[in-house]
Specification:
The radius of gyration is 19 Å and the shape is globular. The strands form five sheets. Strands 1-2-6-7-10-15-16-17 form an eight-stranded antiparallel sheet. The two termini are 34 Å apart. It is an alpha+beta fold.
């Protein structure tokens, strides 16, 4: 029987907003405790901003194989697969480029920093420089390459958490991490109603400013990537966090926001980020891949690909789908 009652909670982790919704209100607290534990483990493994994280330990490996936890190996495998499937438009070797534009700490601190930056075109080393050996559980990163899993880790963590909680609780679960949303288990009547937000103000502003569309999701994931929310200014430069691996600089895209639905949130997020990098060819690329998407141009014009649902006026289970 499809459930109609849901319960939700909101908090912060991984430097972004967390929203958990379950179809059995009696299980919300238990699920939230499991989610908090999971995200703490993800942070310890994958954070670029923690000196004690597993990912940070790879910075000084000087090209030597390093044994990593199964959690980090899985996160890195997802990032490398995303790089392959997007032809390098999303690439985990952009860590040094992110540092160079000033995104070297939690975003709240980035906005408060006034250190000047020197922008220079420098192609990211590329995914093929990184070796993940599943047999030995080791990762080899050449000297001088710094990894950044920011383009894929939140979406992967949302997928992993939604599946884990749905199996443990036996109910429907929605997990959203900063605009990366994954659902699992039995959906509410009418599906999960999600507001896809074209954020035009600060990413942590509530309620978010900007036009939106409401869509129904019964399975898989939905992700929104954009260049308008996480922005800062340094030394006369307007910067944002979506980096083009081909230049090492913030992407200049005809799109300000791209939302994609896919079988997993990780796939949706890789595609939405890649679409910003691919620019004018993004609509055709998404259509060829059979991915329903909503692209918002810099002037506010909205373009959708086949399969993107018509907006509906139903109660919204997830009140803010911020561009991430």
């Amino acid at each position: 029987m499809t459930r109609t009652t849901t319960a939700a909670t909101d908090w912060r982790a991984l430097g972004t907003g967390v929203r958990l919704v379950v179809t059995d209100p009696a299980l919300l607290d238990t699920c939230n405790l499991l989610l908090a534990r999971h995200l703490a483990e993800v942070d310890a493994a994958c954070s670029r901003f923690r000196t004690d994280s597993e990912l940070a330990a790879l910075d000084g490996s000087a090209g030597r194989p390093v044994r990593v936890s199964p959690l980090l190996a899985e996160a890195l495998a997802v990032a490398l697969r995303a790089a392959d499937e997007t032809d390098g438009a999303v690439d985990p070797t952009v860590g040094s480029a992110m540092d160079a534009i000033g995104y070297d700490r939690d975003f709240i601190l980035v906005r408060e920093d006034d250190r000047p930056v020197r922008l220079a075109v420098r192609r990211a080393p590329g995914r093929r420089q990184v070796r993940l050996d599943g047999a030995t559980g080791t990762v080899t990163v050449p000297d001088g390459i710094r990894l950044d899993l920011g383009a894929t880790a939140k979406a992967w963590a949302a997928d992993r958490a939604a599946r884990m909680l749905a199996e443990a609780a036996g109910c429907g679960v929605l997990v959203s991490l900063g605009g990366d949303t994954s659902v699992a288990g039995e959906s509410p009547a009418g599906g999960w109603q999600i507001r896809v937000q074209d954020v035009t103000g600060p990413v942590d502003e509530t309620p978010a400013r900007g036009p939106y569309a409401t869509v129904g999701l019964r399975g898989g994931g939905l992700a929104t990537s954009g260049t308008t929310a996480r922005r800062w200014r340094r030394g006369g430069h307007d910067l944002h966090h979506i980096v083009d691996p081909g230049t090492g600089l913030p992407v200049r895209s005809p799109w300000r926001t791209v939302s994609v639905a896919a079988a997993t949130c990780a796939d949706a997020n890789a595609a939405s980020t890649a679409a910003l990098v691919k620019g004018a060819g993004a609509e055709r690329w998404l259509t060829r891949r059979g991915l329903p998407a909503r692209l918002v141009a810099q002037d506010g014009t909205v373009v959708t690909t086949p399969g993107w649902p018509t907006s509906v006026a139903l109660p919204v289970a997830h009140p803010q789908e911020a561009a991430a």
